[in-house]
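This section describes the prediction task in plain terms. A model, or a person checking by hand, is given the sequence of a single protein chain and must write out its three-dimensional structure as a string of tokens. No templates, partner chains or ligands are provided. The sample shown here is typical of the held-out split.
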Amino acid sequence: MSVAEDIKIASEDRLRADLYNFLGLMLSGPPDQVLLDQCAGLSGDDSTLGTAIAGLARVARATKPKTVESEFNALFIGLGRGELLPYASYYLTGFLNEKPLATLRTDMATRGMTRAQNVYEPEDNIASLMEMMGGMIVGRFGLPASLDDQKTFFSKHISPWAGHFYSDLEAAKNSVLYASIGSVGKTFMEIEREAFRMTAG
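The expected answer:
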């Protein structure tokens, strides 16, 4: 058993990591039928996040892989470029590959995070940042990150722009399934920001 497996992760932290990883997966490429079926099987409660998740499940039940692939391409790839540019550098400076990316690469190096072999996107894209945060919580890059370390990473690389991106995704003219993902992401970012604000340090 590895050291990481030996460390108990609180169930609420595991759920947070799962949601970060889910958002990362949905934003890294169009979901296939298996992932759409998983989305369709989600259920929410009466909370704002629960309502957003129930909305996503409803839309996923009526969505076909071919449709969502066209939607994903229109939003993120397009002819020349998609409707949205899901990068921290772009949201924070108006340009790609700027200082926010360089800062992120430095922070990734100190945490032992490396870009996946088959990924050519700049690391400051929203999908990668969601996956990094999910991985930090459960210790995918070594020991699970402390709450203070999570807060530092979130405040520096995610909080300044992710909520804005998710709002744009929610309102994008090509968004159907992704409008629901935007709602889930926006609500989750608000919850995380508030939770970190209430932690000391």
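For orientation: The chain has a mean pLDDT of 93.
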